[in-house]
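User: Show me a protein chain along with its predicted structure.
Assistant: Here is one chain, sequence first, then structure tokens.
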Amino acid sequence: MIEKSIISSNIKDIRINKKLSQEDLSEKSGLSLRTVQRLENGESVPRGDTLRRLADALKLPDNYFNESSFKNNSNVKNKKSLTIPWFLIGLFAICGSTGFILSLILANLNIIPHNELSLPFITAITILFSGVGIFWGNLIEKKHRK
């Protein structure tokens, strides 16, 4: 369930941004002025038809106030949400693969000797490139989170 304070503050913020008074919202939604006041003060939580009326009156999508859509449109961050660092994962995979392929090319060109040190060299180059990918991905991830 969505917190009462989140709903009330968002209804009020949207109403103010659309330059509507509580009376205007009451008229447009068909809800009583007292109901609008209770909703904005967090004294009650709107459900079902009330949410649809508010969305219509505020010219929002019909599903704006459903839980998932509402959380995505609010300024409140869900503490339980999992953010997947796509840049970090992607660049780790790309750079690690590139390092592995490069080390195989170097081994085939005899730059890396074919002996008991071949595998450690290939592993070290792959790890080095993977580390660069993690570092680079982390920088990009931080830049895009702001």
